[in-house]
Amino acid sequence: xxxxxxxxxxxxxxxxxxxxxxxxxxxxxxxxxxxxxxxxxxxxxxxxxxxxxxxxxxxxxxxxxxxxxxxxxxxxxxxxxxxxxxxxxxxxxxxxxxxxxxxxxxxxxxxxxxxxxxxxxxxxxxxxxxxxxxxxxxxxxxxxxxxxxxxxxxxxxxxxxxxxxxxxxxx
Length: 171
What we know:
By secondary structure, the chain is mostly helical.
């Protein structure tokens, strides 16, 4: 979806500068596979939730979070300036990814939204998504793909999408 939005920006790109926290976090090439595990968030949700009543609200929350991030990327495009890659893993990631669509971080928003709904519905799989969300947040920084502000905004969108979904469920 990002490949659809990033070339169709509706405003100039804003570069998110690295703050003190960002500069203090080292690049950790070994975290690239966990960063890429984000691609399995929705398929894992569907696999775990097939035939269960909680699948639709959890899927909706994740899709809502991802959709809000995409609209943000379209209306207020952002980018990061990547640190110099001194390792093959980081260099490879920079070749296959884009520095665009930095803030808010969908890598954070989507699993957080899913975890919020599953936790509120008291589902055991909530532990998986909560445990997955925390390291994903870290890997967005240790791969140099996002800044701390992107992670915070992604977390806020994930919490809001999860809360909105729960509000709809209770209405």
